[in-house]
Design goal:
alpha+beta; eight-stranded mixed sheet; 19 strands; five-stranded mixed sheet; 717 residues
Length: 717
């Protein structure tokens, strides 16, 4: 069918557009690549909607109750628009035209190949913004990282059609060994270098799952390949951390085991003894697609009402949980490199969805270059475009008849499902007759493989931007515009599934690069809070950031809602609007204080250590002093007793001497030992003289000691 034959109608006057409950009247125009609404007002305000961004279109027939026929549109960028028509036939013709212009049979019919940029974009060419050789040389390949080399094994894309032409592998592995490794990895996506951490030369490599199967197949070449990766940098007991290399399987454990029945699976760690393996528990594309659809459902009435979204559906979507799980896995990888000086090999099933998310995020954590505008564009080119994320398949650019739905008319009653099925069959037959049935991506079956994988990655970056607002050169709007152009099909970068397909389609010669758009508008996306000096404190040791996976917020700007509306629903459940408002204010205050708190952490830790040390020293000193005092106190009575005894002896001796010097015949005479009366008299006389000296050898004293309960008690002796 020619382009002109697709137009059942090109213009409708006196159409009412409804957005967020606001009504405006104007003219609706249908062009080859855009739906344009021009408002009947002095400003002649226009709303442009490109056809590939249409996610769902529903037509409701004329109703005597409402007085109009309606077409409700839901867009992939979460815009919601409704058009009200006074004429039923015009509504039907607009619906059919939209369907024919949106459901295409070939990528060649997309807007990117007909787009004529302005002079500013024509003055730049960013197709060469990513040079793989220069990027890997920046990371140290060929200089500081001599354990790695470039290989041309995939120069003609014959070794692995979905991999880039330029690959980096261990220097100790020959190209002939790579052939054996490719047979053991799904779709020949062998472990290839993604990143080298400059602080310790530890690496991130990525691959697809091994073909283990039920028979537990193994490959000595693959095992040697992984061993060569993990031995490229050996660090023993660096700063107290022992090196323990990691194989990160992004899938849930049950999913990985289920793949074994299909001939694939996960590594048998008995054959990879130099490392350990973890399952990161990130769900597959089907779960993620269903999650986003529930978010759409929560927002689906945004065209006709300004009311907040459905809180229960938002929570049940599990979207925040999925974002948290992805970030948590990337944090684990980043810390393994940076803190434990270890290597990480990451893969999922085929290594082009969850693997790209994790590898990209970990590199943003570790390398401040990827937090700049230029570095972020290079990262997307390397990890997503070059390594073969299937953008055409995941985004569903060619759309499907299934997203166009007509509800039953006045006579249709409850037979809308049958009516819609019949319409789908007729439309599919027409497309097949026009030669459009051969492209699987353009059929309804193509929607089976759509998933918001790249959208989730951008959402994760948004979370980083929220938690570290002064560490990124770009703003939230930079991410939002990138999400829009992911689906707009205005530029050629995201139209194909891999580097090989883009080369075969000669897309660089026929379309503009999406980076042209961002480069010529760089000033619009600069973050005024960005402070690059923070990345170079302590010789770059402060350049690494690790987010908190539990502090996840809704990307409310992309959903067209306020922060208060979306923050009612969190990871932990559903709250009230007032609670959400308080939470937002609390979060903002927390973000303001975050930098001050981080600067105070060291001082607080030091003060705490100092306080504990002083307390311990004081306790020890007090214990020693107490022990010494107790000993001295206990010994003093005995010393007093000895002194008193000595004085007593001297007094007796002196008294005897006096008696001798004053002796009389009576005193000096000898007496009989049996004369008890005489002896008693002399003893009493000696005591009277001793009492005159005020000496008491048996004077009382106190002994202080610990009682049975541990307390100090006094006992008078």
């Amino acid at each position: 069918m020619s382009a002109l034959e697709k137009f059942k109608i090109t213009q409708v006057l006196n159409v009412q557009m409804v957005r967020r409950g606001v009504h405006s009247t104007g003219a609706l125009h249908l062009t080859t690549h855009h739906l344009i609404f021009r408002e009947n007002s002095p400003s002649n305000k226009e709303v442009w909607v490109c056809y590939p961004i249409l996610a769902y279109v529903e037509r409701r027939p004329y109703s005597a109750f409402t007085g109009f026929s309606a077409i409700r549109i839901r867009c992939r960028d979460f815009s919601f628009i409704a058009f009200h028509f006074q004429n039923e036939s015009e509504s039907k013709l607009v619906f059919e035209t939209l369907q024919l212009l949106t459901c295409l049979s070939s990528v060649d019919n997309l807007y990117a190949f007909y787009y004529h940029p302005g002079s500013a974009e024509r003055s730049v060419n960013t197709w060469d913004i990513y040079d793989p050789v220069k990027e890997f040389q920046r990371l140290g390949v060929g200089s500081t990282a001599d354990a790695w080399r470039f290989t041309s094994v995939n120069e003609n894309y014959q070794f692995c059609p979905s991999y880039p032409k330029v690959l980096v592998v261990p220097s100790s592995i020959s190209d002939s060994v790579l052939q054996y490794v490719g047979r053991y990895r799904s779709k020949a996506r062998i472990p290839a270098l993604s990143y080298i951490h400059k602080l310790n030369n530890c690496t991130i490599t990525r691959s697809s799952q091994p073909l283990v199967g039920l028979k537990q197949n193994r490959s000595p070449q693959d095992e040697g390949f992984v061993r060569a990766i993990f031995s490229s940098t050996l660090i023993e007991n660096a700063y107290g951390a022992s090196q323990e290399n990691l194989i990160a399987d992004a899938r849930p454990t049950t999913n990985a085991i289920a793949q074994t029945a299909l001939g694939a699976g996960s590594e048998n760690m008995e054959n990879y003894r130099s490392s350990r393996k973890v399952y990161l528990g990130i769900d597959n594309i089907h779960v993620m697609r269903d999650s986003l659809n529930k978010v759409y459902e929560a927002l689906k009435d945004s065209d006709i009402t300004p009311l907040p979204p459905n809180r229960e559906l938002l929570y049940k979507s599990g979207w925040l949980k999925h974002i948290s799980t992805i970030i948590e896995g990337a944090v684990l990888m980043g810390k393994r490199l940076h803190l434990y000086h270890s290597h990480v090999l990451v893969h999922c099933s085929d290594g082009w969805d969850r693997t790209a998310q994790l590898s990209s995020l970990a590199q943003i954590f570790l390398d401040p270059y990827f937090r700049t505008i230029d570095g972020f564009m290079v990262l997307v080119e390397k990890e997503w475009l070059a390594f073969g994320h299937r953008f055409a398949e995941r985004c569903g650019h060619l759309s499907s008849e299934k997203v166009f739905v007509q509800t039953s008319d006045k006579t249709g009653g409850g037979n809308s499902a049958a009516h819609q099925a019949f319409n789908n069959v007729i439309t599919a037959a027409k497309n097949a007759a026009n030669g459009g049935g051969s492209n699987a991506t353009g059929t309804s079956a193509g929607l089976k493989y759509t998933a918001p994988v790249f959208h989730q990655f951008l959402d994760c970056v948004y979370q980083l931007l929220r938690q570290f607002p002064d560490r990124f050169e770009f703003t939230e709007r930079f991410l939002r515009r990138m999400l829009y152009h992911l689906y707009s099909c205005q530029y050629g970068n995201f139209l194909y599934n891999c580097e090989r397909e883009r080369e075969e389609a000669r897309v660089e010669d026929r379309a503009q690069s999406v980076w042209d758009y961002f480069v010529v508008r760089r000033k619009e996306f600069l973050n005024p809070k960005f402070d690059p000096s923070l990345d170079y404190v302590d010789r770059g040791a402060n350049s690494v950031i690790f987010p908190d996976p539990k502090r996840i917020q809704w990307w409310h700007e992309v959903f067209g809602r306020t922060e208060e509306e979306m923050s009612v629903v969190t990871l932990n459940g559903i709250g009230s609007s007032a609670t959400a408002s308080r939470d937002v204010q609390r979060q903002r205050a927390h973000a303001t204080q975050q930098r001050q708190e981080s600067q105070q952490q060291y001082q607080q830790a030091f003060d705490q250590f100092k306080e504990v040390a002083n307390s311990k020293l004081a306790s020890w000193a007090s214990s020693i002093a107490s022990s010494s005092k107790e000993l001295a106190h206990a010994a003093s009575p005995y010393l007093q007793t000895l002194q008193s005894s000595s004085l007593y002896a001297d007094a007796v001796e002196d008294e005897v001497g006096v008696q001798k010097s004053q002796s009389t015949p009576e005193l000096g005479r000898n007496y009989d030992d049996n004369d008890e009366e005489q002896k008693e008299k002399e003893r009493q006389d000696a005591l009277r003289r001793l009492a005159a000296l005020n000496l008491d050898p048996l004077d009382s004293y106190s002994i202080t000691h610990r009682g049975s309960e541990g307390a100090y008690v006094d006992e008078t002796r």
